[in-house]
């Protein structure tokens, strides 16, 4: 045994030396493998300049939709004495909501995994730097994603004001906007886009059929009821003061909507191209269909009708833009035109509501139609892009549920938000102020020299 120990010791020494040598030889290989793995992981989250440029452009296009697009579209539809009040409301809401989005909106929408809200992990945009890559869109800076989504929040709140224009206090509009953004827009956006309740259910909403249009339309409808009808409504003519400005605003909406829909692809890719062409086709089809239906019904095709039809087509294709094929988008537009025409005429009379800019008739009807038809025309057999495990009947049911959830949630929250604003400052201006016009009585200015 004693004789074997030296031999064993020598053997172990040789084995250790061999192992060490092998480790030294293998070290470069291991290091190279680690570098490759790191490079792959880095490549997967590398900022792409093309995608970033497109998303920056899309963000600016959506801003163009709001200021001046939406502001002019609504401003032309009211009487001249209330023109500046609408411009001021839209402009101020855009400014206010984009700031609130950075303070807490983005975090509560995209910062966690709850069913209705996120968390406060990104409060005040905490942890985000110029080099931070978006977790939602892995090829663009997170700041760009924050900016893009802020415009969606802003336009959703701004859409509402068209329903109760010409008779609502500016302070009440601002209070309502803050409350509604916090308790209706944020949870809806989280439920659909932030991994919440409706996302888990498989609801499809490419760019905001439920989150933006139905959400805003229901809030506008509730507001129109709660504020009440304008003085003289139904007894005297209350015509739009400038259909020229409405047409300009509508055209800017259409141009900006390419950022809204195609930008929701999140990259400069085929999905963006599909959403882009669908935004052209559905809108054109809806404008023509509205014009034909209006001609058959009234004997004349109005400029306001053509522009309204275009907006109805834009609204309808929004939830479906990246899921349906071009021919499907045309069919959706052809249906949207006459249906939204009914929304601003027959349905509006049935509801007995003074919705000045037809927020519900266009955005509500078009949004509901688009959300449900998305479940139909995303079928591959109809030229669409099917989600995994797609079944038409099941998907349509999921889409229908998402519409109902949106209507109920927004209806209840909107009512409460209006009541709070009413208690704090009152919703409606005095009769004298309404007769004189909100431009002078609220803002001390006039849109036009008299």
From TrEMBL:
- Cite the InterPro entries for this sequence: Ammonium/urea_transptr, Ammonium_transpt, Ammonium_transpt_CS, NH4_transpt_AmtB-like_dom, RhesusRHD
Tell me how this protein sits in the membrane: Multi-pass membrane protein
Membrane-spanning segments: 53-74, 86-106, 143-165, 172-194, 206-228, 240-260, 272-292, 304-324, 330-347, 359-382, 402-421
> Keyword Ribosomal protein, does the record have it?
no
Q: Where in the cell is it found?
A: Cell membrane; Membrane
Domain of life, per UniProt, equals: Bacteria
Gene Ontology MF terms: ammonium channel activity
> Which Gene Ontology cellular component terms are annotated?
plasma membrane
Q: Which UniProt keywords apply?
A: Ammonia transport, Membrane, Signal, Transmembrane, Transmembrane helix, Transport
- Residues spanning the signal sequence: 1-23
Q: Which Pfam families match?
A: Ammonium_transp
UniProt name for this protein: Ammonium transporter
């Amino acid at each position: 045994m004693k004789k074997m120990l030296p031999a064993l010791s020598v053997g172990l020494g040789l084995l250790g030396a061999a192992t060490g040598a092998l480790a030294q030889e293998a070290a470069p290989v291991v290091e190279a493998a680690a570098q490759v793995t790191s490079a792959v992981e880095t490549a997967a989250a590398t900022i792409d300049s093309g995608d970033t440029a497109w998303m920056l452009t899309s963000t600016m296009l959506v801003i163009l939709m709001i200021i001046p697009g939406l502001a002019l579209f609504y401003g032309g539809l009211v009487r001249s004495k209330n023109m500046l009040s609408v411009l001021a409301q839209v402009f101020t809401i855009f400014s206010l909501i984009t700031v609130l989005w950075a303070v807490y909106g983005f975090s509560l929408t995209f910062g966690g995994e709850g069913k209705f809200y996120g968390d406060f992990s990104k409060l005040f945009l905490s942890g985000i730097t110029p080099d931070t890559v978006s977790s939602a869109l892995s090829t663009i800076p997170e700041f760009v994603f924050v900016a893009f989504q802020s415009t969606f929040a802003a336009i959703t709140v701004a859409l509402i004001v068209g329903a109760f224009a010409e008779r609502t206090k500016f302070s009440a509009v601002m209070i309502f906007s803050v409350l509604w953004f916090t308790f209706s827009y944020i949870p809806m956006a989280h439920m659909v886009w932030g991994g919440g309740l409706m996302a888990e259910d498989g609801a499809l909403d490419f760019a905001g059929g439920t989150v933006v249009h139905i959400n805003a339309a229901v809030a506008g409808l509730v507001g129109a009821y709660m504020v009440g009808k304008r003085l003289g409504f139904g007894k005297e003519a209350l015509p739009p003061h400038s259909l020229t400005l409405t047409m300009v605003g509508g055209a800017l909406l259409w141009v900006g909507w390419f950022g809204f829909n195609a930008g929701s692809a999140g990259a400069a890719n085929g999905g963006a191209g599909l959403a882009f062409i669908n935004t052209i086709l559905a809108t054109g089809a809806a404008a023509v269909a509205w014009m034909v239906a209006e001609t058959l019904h009234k004997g004349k095709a109005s400029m306001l009708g053509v522009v309204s039809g275009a907006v109805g087509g834009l609204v309808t294709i929004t939830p479906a833009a990246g899921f349906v094929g071009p021919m499907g988008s045309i069919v959706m537009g052809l249906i949207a035109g006459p249906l939204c025409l009914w929304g601003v005429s027959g349905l509006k009379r049935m509801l007995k509501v003074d919705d000045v800019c037809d927020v519900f008739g266009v955005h509500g009807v078009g949004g509901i139609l688009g959300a449900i038809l998305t479940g139909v025309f995303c079928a591959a057999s109809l030229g669409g892009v099917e989600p995994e495990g797609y079944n038409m009947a099941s998907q349509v049911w999921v889409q229908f549920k998402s519409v109902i959830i949106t209507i109920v949630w927004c209806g209840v929250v909107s009512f409460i938000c209006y009541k709070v604003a009413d208690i704090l400052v009152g919703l409606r201006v005095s009769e004298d102020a309404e007769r004189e016009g909100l431009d002078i009585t609220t803002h001390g200015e006039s849109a036009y020299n008299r």
